[in-house]
Amino acid sequence: MMTKKEHYQINIKLAVPVMVGQLGHVMVGVADSIMVGQLGTLPLAAVALGNSIFAIFMVFGLGVTFGITPLVANADGMGKKHLPGRLLHDSWFVNLGVSLLLFLVLLSIIPLLPLLGQDREVLPLAIPYYIILSSSLIPLMLFMTFKQYAEGLSDTRTAMFVSVGCNLLNVLLNYLLIFGKFGFPELGMNGAGWATVIARWIMFLVMWWYIVKAAKKIRTPFSVLNFRFSKVLVKKLLSIGLPSGLQYIFEVSAFSLAAIFAGMLGAKALAAHQIAINLASISYMAATGLGAAAAVRVGNQLGRRDPVNLVMASKSIFSMTVIWMSFAGILLFFFRYTFTGFYTDDLEVQSLAAAMLIVAVFFQLSDGLQAVALGALRGFTDVRIPTIITFVAYWILTLPCAYLISQYTPVGAMGIWYSLAGGLTISAGFLLFRFRKLLRKFILQMEQKQAG
C-alpha cells in the first residue's frame, strides 16, 4: 500500500502538467481578450459572443475525446500492452469524424445568430471572427486524441510542453496579426482568430509526431490510411465520449448562454461578463487538470482491483482541489479591480466585472469539486448519471433562473452570476454523492470477493 505522501506525489506528477497545459489555453483566451480590448468595447463584446457560441460545440468535441483516457488507463493497469494502440487508432477516426461534423454545424447556424437579440453593432464584427475560430476545432480535436492517449499512459508532461509552446506562439501571433507588427497584416480582432487556427494546427502536428514517430509509444502499427476499426472499441469510446461531451455542453453552454443573456442587456454588460468569465475560467481549467488526474488514478486502481489505494488516491486528489480553489478565490477577491483593469479602461465595465468576480469567489469550491468529481466518475466509466445531473443542474435550474432574473428584475447581469453559483453548487453536491456511492460499491465487491 502506498503512503499518503506517495499519493500526493503521483497526483502532482499527473495533474500539474495538465493544469499548466490547461492554464496555457486559458491564458491565450486572456491574452486575446486583453489585446482585443485595446481596440474598444465593441470588438471585445464581439469576441465574447463568438467565443461563447463556439465554446458550446468545442467542449462537446473535447468531451468526446475524453473517452479514450479511462480505457487506456484501465488497459495499462491490467497489463494489456497492445490494446492502448488499438484504442488510439479507432479514437483517431471517431474524433476526426466528429470534428468535421461539428465544424459544419458551426457554419450552418450562422443565419440564426441575428435571432439572439445582440447589440446590432456587435454581430457584424462577431461573425467573421466566429467563422475563423470555428475552423480551429478540427486540429484541436486531433491534438486532443493524442493528448488523451498519452495521459491514459500517465504521460502528462509531453502535452504540457507542446501546449505551452504553441500557446506562447499563439500570443505572439496575436500581437503580430491584431496590430500588424513587423510587416504582418493588421487584421484587428480577426487576427486573434487566425493566430488560434495556426497555433492549433502546429500543436496537433507536433503531438502526432511525438507519439507516433519520436517516442514510439504505440505497440501496434498506426496509420491514418488504415480504415479498419473495431466496432466494439468504437462503441466503448463513444459510450464514454458522447455522455462526457454532453456533460461539458450542459455546463459550458450555461456559461455561453449566460453571455448571450448579458448581451441582451447591452455591449457593456457583455464585455464585463467576458472579463469575469475569462478570469474565473483560469482556476476552473486548472481544476479540470486535477479532474484528468482523477480519471487516470481511478482507472488505474480499478484495473489493479486495489480498493485501498483507490480510496487514498481519491481523498488526496479532492484535498488538492479544495486547496487550489480556495487559493484562487482569495486571489480573485483581493485583486479583482487590478485584474479587470488589464482588460479595459471603461470604469463602468470594470466595476460590473469586479462585482461578478465577487460571486465567482463564492462558487470556486463548487466549480472545482464538480470538475474533479466528473473526472473521477469517468475513471469508473460512469457517465450516464453524471450527464443527467449536469443537465438538470444547468439547463433545468440555472439557465431559466439566469434568464428570468437578468431580464425581468432590477438585478440585471448580476442575476446571471447568482444563478451560475447555484447551479455549480447543486451539481457538485450530487456528483460527489454519486462518486461516494460507486466507491462504496466497489469496496464492498472487493471485500466479498476476498471473503469468498
Key terms:
globular, 452 residues, mainly alpha
Describe this structure in words.
It is a single chain. The two termini are 22 Å apart. This protein has one domain (4-451). Helix 7 (157-179) packs antiparallel against helix 8 (189-214). 83% of the residues lie in helices and 0% in strands. The chain has 452 residues and is mainly α. The chain has 16 helices and no strands.
Radius of gyration based on Cα positions: 21 Å
Provide the succession of SSEs.
HHHHHHHHHHHHHHHH
Q: Distance between the terminal alpha carbons, to the nearest Å?
A: 22 Å
Discrete helix count: 16
Number of domains: 1
Protein structure class:
mainly alpha
Specify the helix fraction band.
over 70%
What percent of residues are in strands?
under 5%
Q: Mind describing the biggest β-sheet?
A: none
How many β-strand stretches?
Answer: 0
The best one-word shape is: globular
Round the mean pLDDT to the nearest integer and report it.
Answer: 85
Low-confidence stretches: none
What's the helix and strand layout?
Blueprint: H1 4-37, H2 41-65, H3 68-77, H4 83-108, H5 123-134, H6 137-152, H7 157-179, H8 189-214, H9 231-263, H10 267-304, H11 307-334, H12 336-341, H13 347-362, H14 364-379, H15 384-408, H16 413-451
Helix pairs in contact: 1-2, 1-7, 1-10, 1-11, 2-4, 2-5, 2-6, 2-9, 2-10, 3-4, 3-6, 3-10, 4-6, 4-9, 5-8, 6-8, 7-8, 9-10, 9-15, 9-16, 10-11, 10-13, 10-14, 11-13, 11-14, 11-16, 13-16, 14-16, 15-16
